[in-house]
Amino acid sequence: MTVFLELGQRPDEPGPPIHGAKTYPAEVATRLAADAEKVIAKYPQSRSALLPLLHLVQSEDGCLTPAGIAFCAKQLRLTDAEVTAVATFYSMYRRTPTGEYLVGVCTNTLCAIMGGDAILDALQDHLGVHAGETTADGRVTLEHVECNAACDYAPVVMVNWEFFDNQTPSSARDLVDGLREGKPPIPTRGAPLCTFKETARVLAGLPDPEAAAAQTPTGEATLAGLRIAKERGMEAPAVTEVSDSHSGPDDEKVAKEATKDQAAPGPSADVPAKPNEPETDPDATESKT
């Protein structure tokens, strides 16, 4: 008897399964294989190229599909299950079709208290969609995202993972209106906006040289700590020598200092006998009973 299993997450796992076309047309597979060869060549171990290859197939479909999973598996000599396990772990790999612009509103702690929740509510009302949904025109997919390490500019909205800093509900509405009208605004910093599929290709390691050259520099808030350190003549101590961690008593002292506030280890199955108490032979005890 033959049993067919459709790969995807377990029924109790969140998120939709990976669905769509199961194979690529020959011309698409050939084109992607040429790109994949360039990506794989960058890594000493071919399977290390899995994450960029997942971005590559996402640049073709706008999300992951069984065809993309099978393509990655074939290129790296992995099983479809191995590729699916990795692909469903990371939130940057989409399981449903994505609009031209993926708009993510940070709702983590600092952005939330600075207005991130209000921005997400305003965009849901303005676009007529909930987080995780795409507008009817296919232009914008809205989602809430975890921290993007941009707390110095909170609250932050990201479009295809480019930063739009210090947002308000009003500015965020203007932002998505520009996206839907085909007039994408310039990000606060980073590269100029491109579509979601084009962004996925960049993340695969195949960037557009002109776009890469047009990067907006890092902002003043990010560099504030460096500026203050320079003004006060502060700098990291120079590393004069790297030694083995077991090279001498100083290393033991450092190790004790680093672990002095750690919790005591949990109970062990191997409990030593108390002082002046003979050890019990479990076999002898068992024989008496």
Automatic annotation (TrEMBL):
One matching Pfam family, short form? 2Fe-2S_thioredx
Keyword Phosphoprotein in annotation: no
Gene3D superfamilies per UniProt = Glutaredoxin, NADH-quinone oxidoreductase subunit E
Q: Where is the composition biased (Basic and acidic residues)?
A: 243-260
Annotated Acidic residues bias: 278-289
Keywords on record: 2Fe-2S, Iron, Iron-sulfur, Metal-binding, NAD, Quinone, Translocase
The record, for SUPFAM superfamilies, names: Thioredoxin-like
- Keyword Iron assigned to the entry: answer is yes
Q: Which reaction does it catalyse?
A: a quinone + NADH + 5 H(+)(in) = a quinol + NAD(+) + 4 H(+)(out)
- Chain segments carrying region Disordered: 1-20, 232-289
Identify a single GO molecular function assigned to this protein.
NADH dehydrogenase activity
- List, separated by semicolons, the cofactors it needs: [2Fe-2S] cluster
User: What family does this belong to?
Assistant: Belongs to the complex I 24 kDa subunit family.
The role this protein plays is:
NDH-1 shuttles electrons from NADH, via FMN and iron-sulfur (Fe-S) centers, to quinones in the respiratory chain. The immediate electron acceptor for the enzyme in this species is believed to be menaquinone. Couples the redox reaction to proton translocation (for every two electrons transferred, four hydrogen ions are translocated across the cytoplasmic membrane), and thus conserves the redox energy in a proton gradient.
Q: What is this protein called?
A: NADH-quinone oxidoreductase subunit E
The organism named in the record is: Mycolicibacterium rhodesiae (strain NBB3)
